[in-house]
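Good day; I would like, with your permission, to put a structural problem before you. A protein sequence and the structure tokens that stand for its backbone fold form the material at issue. Thank you for your consideration; the sequence and its tokens are set out here:
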Amino acid sequence: MTHRVLVVDDEKGIREALRQLLEYEDIEVQTSASGLEAVKLYAEFRPHLVFLDVKMQGRDGLATLRDLRALDPQAQVVMISGHGTIQTAVEATQLGAYDFLEKPLDTERVLLASENVRLRDEVRSQHEIVGSSKAIVHVIERLERVAPTAARVLITGENGTGKELVARAIHALSPRAARAFVEVNCAAIPGELIESELFGHVKGSFTGAFADRAGKFELADGGTLFLDEIGDMSLAAQAKVLRALEDGVVSRVGSEKGFAVDVRVIAATNKDLAGEIAAGRFREDLLYRLNVVPIEVPPLRARRGDIPQLVEHFARQLTRPAGLQPKQFDKEALARLAAHDWPGNIRELRNAVERLLILAPGGSVTVADVERLAGVEARDLALGAGPGAPWMRATTFEEFKQAAERAFLHAKLREHDWNVSETARTLDMPRSNLYKKIERYQLAREAS
């Protein structure tokens, strides 16, 4: 991703010196001699960082800073001045300036400021919610409304839709943003260890407890605790979480001593918790505690218009860390990707984009690359889209049944992110039976 910097100073010598310095570091630079022009240029250029002079003819730097922050509250602006005072620096900081540099400018400090903002942008882009469809805008609007409050949030949606991104966005926009964001994947921790993971333990409380250990509730004190896949938590752990939410007090496994914690809990699940309650696998009172504000994240097939934007976002995001050459996706390739259902949602799309960046031979990604390397055409046909479906090539009824069963099971396994137990439960099929069919049909997760 090309780093973009806007330099705003009414002294031509300063503008050109900064341009040369930054362009030598492979940074794209635009310059402006006035505040009014800078605001217009910012809207078109969308720089990652602005170097802005305080003293300028016409609209001065502080007024321009206000304009830029009104245009973009996330604008990263470094103020520069030959007449720096503590009062001016304080005022600039209060208006949202990222840093304050005095003239004559120190080369190292200029480059350090630019590099720090670039790294921060890269980190932020890892957790950015991308899209402008009505479905995702509704999600963003709701999370922005709930973020400044202390309300608990329950995020629902299929695997791979970006539930963690929503949780991180709520934390980042909350008064707790400067404190810890602690994540627990409840489905990935064995049932006998989940209580220790959440609440900690004291030395000797069970076999293998060789020392005292803090739990996730303690680590998240003052911040946010994200309980991902909450529907997979054991009933015993659910009872302790309920008590922690009601009392704000936790105790480590093996200890009767309790202590207060200040934690905002955000939970997420891909399960129907009402159905889990009916089946006796989830506590109704815990659901009421968690589901103060519900947010449902739509599947990718419900926001196809966002797919080209997501593809370009992933292409920029993946290029630099993986040492890959930048590639453009042509219109036909983007249209083909947007037409696919993506049962694995955003996670599957991201994997496909990475595969295309690595394996597509040219400087751009074509529709032929998409169909050959991302497996989109083959997968669509396997799901029955058109005359090329495998069962349409069957010559006997038994061949037809086997081809249809293979495609159906493959689709269901992808839908549940290859969680065999969850897939078997959804299909009302013994897990051992599903394993046999996976072996029989040689089903395997697609390479990512």
Q: What stands out?
A: The longest strand covers residues 264-269. Residues 4-126 form a domain with the Rossmann fold fold (CATH 3.40.50.2300).
